[in-house]
Design brief:
Layout (H helix, E strand, L loop, with lengths): L5 E8 L2 H13 L6 E8 L8 H9 L7 E5 L3 E2 L4 H12 L3 E4 L1 E3 L5 E3 L19 E2 L2 E2 L3 E5 H7 L12 H13 L2 E4 L5 E2 L11 H13 L6 E3 L4 E3 L2 H17 L2
Parallel strand pairs: 1-2, 1-3, 5-11
Antiparallel strand pairs: 3-10, 4-12, 5-10, 6-7, 6-9, 8-11, 13-14
Protein backbone atom coordinates (compact mmCIF):
# COMPACT_ATOMS: atom_id res chain seq x y z
CA UNK A 1 0.00 0.00 0.00
CA UNK A 2 1.32 3.42 -0.96
CA UNK A 3 1.57 5.64 2.13
CA UNK A 4 2.35 8.62 -0.10
CA UNK A 5 -1.07 8.62 -1.76
CA UNK A 6 -2.91 11.93 -1.56
CA UNK A 7 -6.59 11.68 -0.64
CA UNK A 8 -8.88 14.63 -1.17
CA UNK A 9 -12.27 14.57 0.55
CA UNK A 10 -14.80 16.74 -1.23
CA UNK A 11 -17.92 17.84 0.66
CA UNK A 12 -20.55 20.33 -0.45
CA UNK A 13 -22.41 21.33 2.73
CA UNK A 14 -25.49 23.40 3.48
CA UNK A 15 -25.65 22.92 7.26
CA UNK A 16 -22.52 23.85 9.21
CA UNK A 17 -23.82 22.39 12.46
CA UNK A 18 -24.30 18.93 10.97
CA UNK A 19 -20.96 19.20 9.18
CA UNK A 20 -19.11 19.98 12.41
CA UNK A 21 -20.97 17.44 14.55
CA UNK A 22 -20.53 14.54 12.18
CA UNK A 23 -17.94 14.75 9.42
CA UNK A 24 -15.44 17.20 10.88
CA UNK A 25 -15.72 15.69 14.36
CA UNK A 26 -14.71 12.36 12.83
CA UNK A 27 -11.66 13.79 11.09
CA UNK A 28 -10.54 15.41 14.33
CA UNK A 29 -10.60 12.09 16.16
CA UNK A 30 -8.75 9.73 13.82
CA UNK A 31 -5.08 9.52 12.96
CA UNK A 32 -3.91 10.98 9.69
CA UNK A 33 -2.42 8.06 7.79
CA UNK A 34 -2.06 9.60 4.35
CA UNK A 35 -1.74 13.07 2.89
CA UNK A 36 -5.35 13.93 3.56
CA UNK A 37 -6.90 17.10 2.19
CA UNK A 38 -10.46 18.25 2.87
CA UNK A 39 -12.16 20.48 0.32
CA UNK A 40 -15.25 22.02 1.88
CA UNK A 41 -17.71 23.74 -0.45
CA UNK A 42 -19.93 26.16 1.46
CA UNK A 43 -23.40 26.15 -0.09
CA UNK A 44 -25.27 27.54 2.92
CA UNK A 45 -26.29 30.55 0.82
CA UNK A 46 -27.28 28.51 -2.23
CA UNK A 47 -24.35 29.43 -4.42
CA UNK A 48 -24.71 26.21 -6.38
CA UNK A 49 -27.93 24.66 -7.65
CA UNK A 50 -26.57 21.10 -7.88
CA UNK A 51 -23.83 18.96 -6.43
CA UNK A 52 -22.61 18.14 -9.94
CA UNK A 53 -22.05 21.83 -10.62
CA UNK A 54 -20.42 22.44 -7.24
CA UNK A 55 -17.97 19.56 -7.59
CA UNK A 56 -17.05 20.26 -11.21
CA UNK A 57 -16.45 23.97 -10.69
CA UNK A 58 -14.62 23.67 -7.37
CA UNK A 59 -12.31 20.92 -8.64
CA UNK A 60 -11.53 22.72 -11.89
CA UNK A 61 -7.83 23.60 -12.20
CA UNK A 62 -7.09 22.51 -8.64
CA UNK A 63 -4.37 20.15 -7.51
CA UNK A 64 -6.58 17.35 -6.27
CA UNK A 65 -4.14 14.54 -5.54
CA UNK A 66 -4.50 10.86 -6.40
CA UNK A 67 -7.85 9.81 -4.94
CA UNK A 68 -11.11 11.71 -4.55
CA UNK A 69 -13.61 10.80 -1.85
CA UNK A 70 -16.95 12.56 -2.38
CA UNK A 71 -18.69 12.67 0.97
CA UNK A 72 -21.83 14.12 2.53
CA UNK A 73 -21.85 16.41 5.56
CA UNK A 74 -23.83 13.80 7.55
CA UNK A 75 -21.24 11.01 7.39
CA UNK A 76 -19.33 9.98 10.51
CA UNK A 77 -16.78 7.28 11.32
CA UNK A 78 -14.76 6.05 14.28
CA UNK A 79 -11.65 4.74 12.57
CA UNK A 80 -9.81 5.08 9.29
CA UNK A 81 -10.07 1.46 8.15
CA UNK A 82 -12.24 2.50 5.23
CA UNK A 83 -9.46 4.87 4.12
CA UNK A 84 -7.03 1.96 4.06
CA UNK A 85 -9.48 -0.07 2.00
CA UNK A 86 -10.04 2.74 -0.50
CA UNK A 87 -6.30 3.31 -0.97
CA UNK A 88 -5.58 -0.40 -1.31
CA UNK A 89 -8.41 -1.04 -3.76
CA UNK A 90 -7.69 1.94 -6.01
CA UNK A 91 -3.96 1.25 -5.95
CA UNK A 92 -4.55 -2.34 -7.06
CA UNK A 93 -7.17 -1.41 -9.66
CA UNK A 94 -7.60 2.28 -10.50
CA UNK A 95 -10.52 1.55 -12.84
CA UNK A 96 -13.07 1.27 -10.03
CA UNK A 97 -15.68 3.41 -8.32
CA UNK A 98 -16.08 2.43 -4.68
CA UNK A 99 -19.09 3.19 -2.53
CA UNK A 100 -20.62 2.29 0.82
CA UNK A 101 -24.14 1.61 -0.42
CA UNK A 102 -25.42 0.50 -3.79
CA UNK A 103 -27.69 -1.71 -5.85
CA UNK A 104 -26.53 -5.02 -7.25
CA UNK A 105 -27.36 -6.34 -10.71
CA UNK A 106 -29.92 -8.58 -9.01
CA UNK A 107 -31.78 -5.53 -7.69
CA UNK A 108 -30.65 -5.86 -4.06
CA UNK A 109 -29.69 -2.76 -2.08
CA UNK A 110 -26.61 -3.45 0.05
CA UNK A 111 -24.59 -1.48 2.59
CA UNK A 112 -23.15 -1.59 6.09
CA UNK A 113 -24.24 1.97 6.82
CA UNK A 114 -25.72 2.70 10.25
CA UNK A 115 -27.64 5.59 11.77
CA UNK A 116 -25.44 7.44 14.26
CA UNK A 117 -28.00 7.83 17.06
CA UNK A 118 -29.31 4.26 17.10
CA UNK A 119 -26.40 2.30 15.53
CA UNK A 120 -29.03 0.41 13.53
CA UNK A 121 -28.29 -0.68 9.98
CA UNK A 122 -29.94 1.46 7.33
CA UNK A 123 -30.49 -1.23 4.69
CA UNK A 124 -32.00 -4.69 5.11
CA UNK A 125 -29.04 -6.42 3.48
CA UNK A 126 -25.48 -6.13 4.80
CA UNK A 127 -22.29 -7.48 3.22
CA UNK A 128 -19.11 -9.13 4.48
CA UNK A 129 -17.06 -8.77 1.31
CA UNK A 130 -16.63 -6.36 -1.57
CA UNK A 131 -19.75 -6.58 -3.72
CA UNK A 132 -20.18 -5.72 -7.39
CA UNK A 133 -22.96 -3.21 -7.99
CA UNK A 134 -24.59 -1.26 -10.78
CA UNK A 135 -24.50 2.09 -9.01
CA UNK A 136 -23.52 3.52 -5.62
CA UNK A 137 -25.14 6.03 -3.31
CA UNK A 138 -23.96 9.64 -3.17
CA UNK A 139 -23.35 9.67 0.59
CA UNK A 140 -19.75 8.51 0.23
CA UNK A 141 -17.94 7.21 -2.84
CA UNK A 142 -14.41 7.27 -4.19
CA UNK A 143 -12.46 7.08 -7.43
CA UNK A 144 -9.07 8.06 -8.72
CA UNK A 145 -8.62 11.69 -9.67
CA UNK A 146 -7.60 10.55 -13.16
CA UNK A 147 -10.91 8.75 -13.68
CA UNK A 148 -12.88 11.75 -12.45
CA UNK A 149 -11.03 14.08 -14.82
CA UNK A 150 -11.97 11.89 -17.77
CA UNK A 151 -15.65 11.81 -16.79
CA UNK A 152 -16.78 14.78 -14.69
CA UNK A 153 -20.32 14.94 -13.32
CA UNK A 154 -23.14 15.47 -15.81
CA UNK A 155 -24.64 18.81 -14.84
CA UNK A 156 -27.44 18.57 -17.41
CA UNK A 157 -28.79 15.24 -16.17
CA UNK A 158 -27.98 15.88 -12.50
CA UNK A 159 -29.27 19.44 -12.34
CA UNK A 160 -30.28 19.21 -8.68
CA UNK A 161 -28.93 17.22 -5.71
CA UNK A 162 -29.75 13.67 -6.76
CA UNK A 163 -28.22 10.70 -8.61
CA UNK A 164 -24.89 12.23 -9.63
CA UNK A 165 -23.06 9.15 -8.30
CA UNK A 166 -25.44 6.84 -10.17
CA UNK A 167 -24.92 8.76 -13.41
CA UNK A 168 -21.12 8.77 -13.18
CA UNK A 169 -21.18 5.02 -12.46
CA UNK A 170 -23.15 4.37 -15.65
CA UNK A 171 -20.93 6.72 -17.63
CA UNK A 172 -17.71 5.18 -16.32
CA UNK A 173 -18.88 1.64 -17.02
CA UNK A 174 -20.03 2.56 -20.52
CA UNK A 175 -16.84 4.37 -21.48
CA UNK A 176 -14.16 2.41 -19.66
CA UNK A 177 -15.73 -0.80 -18.34
CA UNK A 178 -15.19 0.56 -14.82
CA UNK A 179 -16.06 -1.79 -11.95
CA UNK A 180 -18.64 -0.42 -9.52
CA UNK A 181 -18.35 -1.90 -6.04
CA UNK A 182 -19.59 -1.47 -2.49
CA UNK A 183 -17.05 -2.18 0.23
CA UNK A 184 -18.08 -3.62 3.61
CA UNK A 185 -16.58 -1.04 5.96
CA UNK A 186 -19.03 0.39 8.48
CA UNK A 187 -19.59 4.12 8.69
CA UNK A 188 -22.49 6.24 9.91
CA UNK A 189 -24.89 8.09 7.62
CA UNK A 190 -27.35 10.56 9.18
CA UNK A 191 -28.25 10.70 12.84
CA UNK A 192 -31.55 8.95 12.25
CA UNK A 193 -33.97 7.96 9.51
CA UNK A 194 -35.82 11.27 9.45
CA UNK A 195 -32.83 13.27 8.19
CA UNK A 196 -31.93 14.05 4.59
CA UNK A 197 -33.46 14.43 1.14
CA UNK A 198 -36.45 12.41 0.01
CA UNK A 199 -37.91 11.39 -3.31
CA UNK A 200 -39.36 14.58 -4.75
CA UNK A 201 -40.12 15.99 -8.18
CA UNK A 202 -36.49 16.99 -8.63
CA UNK A 203 -35.45 13.40 -8.00
CA UNK A 204 -38.02 12.09 -10.48
CA UNK A 205 -37.01 14.63 -13.13
CA UNK A 206 -33.37 13.63 -12.68
CA UNK A 207 -34.34 9.98 -12.93
CA UNK A 208 -36.17 10.71 -16.18
CA UNK A 209 -33.14 12.52 -17.62
CA UNK A 210 -30.96 9.59 -16.60
CA UNK A 211 -33.28 7.12 -18.32
CA UNK A 212 -33.41 9.34 -21.39
CA UNK A 213 -29.60 9.57 -21.62
CA UNK A 214 -29.06 5.81 -21.51
CA UNK A 215 -32.20 4.67 -23.33
CA UNK A 216 -30.29 3.58 -26.43
CA UNK A 217 -27.95 1.42 -24.34
CA UNK A 218 -30.07 0.01 -21.53
CA UNK A 219 -33.54 -1.34 -20.89
CA UNK A 220 -33.44 -0.44 -17.19
CA UNK A 221 -31.84 2.04 -14.86
CA UNK A 222 -30.93 0.76 -11.40
CA UNK A 223 -30.25 3.33 -8.73
CA UNK A 224 -29.70 2.64 -5.01
CA UNK A 225 -33.42 3.42 -4.54
CA UNK A 226 -35.28 2.62 -7.78
CA UNK A 227 -35.38 0.25 -10.72
CA UNK A 228 -37.09 1.86 -13.70
CA UNK A 229 -37.50 1.05 -17.36
CA UNK A 230 -35.90 3.41 -19.86
CA UNK A 231 -38.97 2.95 -22.08
CA UNK A 232 -41.02 6.16 -21.64
CA UNK A 233 -44.43 4.55 -21.08
CA UNK A 234 -43.10 1.89 -18.72
CA UNK A 235 -41.11 4.55 -16.87
CA UNK A 236 -44.14 6.73 -16.15
CA UNK A 237 -46.32 3.73 -15.25
CA UNK A 238 -43.74 2.67 -12.65
CA UNK A 239 -43.52 6.17 -11.18
CA UNK A 240 -47.32 6.50 -11.12
CA UNK A 241 -47.77 3.14 -9.35
CA UNK A 242 -45.08 4.06 -6.82
CA UNK A 243 -46.76 7.40 -6.13
CA UNK A 244 -50.15 5.72 -5.61
CA UNK A 245 -48.66 3.11 -3.29
CA UNK A 246 -46.65 5.60 -1.22
CA UNK A 247 -49.09 8.50 -1.03
CA UNK A 248 -52.62 7.26 -1.71
CA UNK A 249 -52.76 3.72 -0.35
CA UNK A 250 -50.37 4.31 2.52
Amino acid sequence: MDDCMNLTYVCCFNNKTILEEMLMHSFANIDKAWNRNILLIDNTKGRYSSCAEAYNKELLNKSIGDILVFIHQDIAFENREFEKRIVQELTDNPNQILGFAGMTEQGIVVSNLRYLSTKKYITKRQIVEKTECIAVDECCFAMTADLYKQLKFDEQVCFHWHLYATEICYNAHKQFGTRICVIPEEIYHKKNGSDGLHTDMYYLRTLWRLADKYRADLEEIRTPCYIVSTHPIKFFLKIFRTFIRNHILK
